[in-house]
Amino acid sequence: MMTCDEFQGAKHAYLDRELAEEAAKEVQAHAEACAACGRELRELERLRGWLAQSAVEGPREEASGRVRMALREAAEREAERVRAQPPAIMTLPEVAEYLRVGQTEARRIAYEIPHFQIAGLLRFRREMVERWIDGQERRAARVGGPALTMMPEEGTVWALVG
Hints:
The protein contains seven helices and five strands. It is mainly α and 162 residues long.
């Protein structure tokens, strides 16, 4: 199955009909399976169709340059969106960043999240991390939100946790 990064590299060749039949089918299948890439492909097709059908007043080269710039900007926005999304398989530091906690805290909760090892290093599916987050939210909702709790390591100090 094609990834979003592979789609980004192949989309223009696909639209220019420069891909072999099998590669074109992969691009099409990815666009049908991935909502964001499908939207981008439809937008590019629409822009290219507009360019082909437009009766432009003034120099055609100038209009073509504006459309190319709009296409490039749309591609850059989509590439940024893809880069901003955490990878499907994450390392412990990536999980810590995703959860916005320190690596020590991530290491503490790592065994609550389904994971596997590669070369002795922990790996987490983003999907499993998101399920763990959902479970934490459900648990917090059942408890009823924050509560005052005695923190044993703090002695007699009360803290708001939850």
